[in-house]
Amino acid sequence: MTGFEQFQKAGKDGMDVAMESFGAFSKGMQAISAEVADYSKKSFEEGSAALEKIAAAKTLDKAFEAQADYAKTSYEAMVGEASKLGEMYTELAKEAYKPYEGAFASAAK
Questions:
Q1: d(Cα 107, Cα 15) in Å, to the nearest integer?
Q2: What integer best gives the mean pLDDT of the chain?
């Protein structure tokens, strides 16, 4: 194999690895985007329901109670969602890096 053919093969291999990594990254970002959209929709619906409950309260104490319940459940949901998104981003990074592992291993040899 000549130097040019080796250079051409290395370039093709590098492009294949980059495209595989980009595919994994793209797939992961689509999953994260879908998760964020679902959470946003759910959060909006829960917020609207809580507002209706607060507005329908007969006493100020019941309104404060409904608001406090909403704040608590909203905070817990947000913390859970943040944890889930953190795990999804970690998995995304692992999947996007996988194609490079083989390339780095062969380059080290």
A1: 15
A2: 91
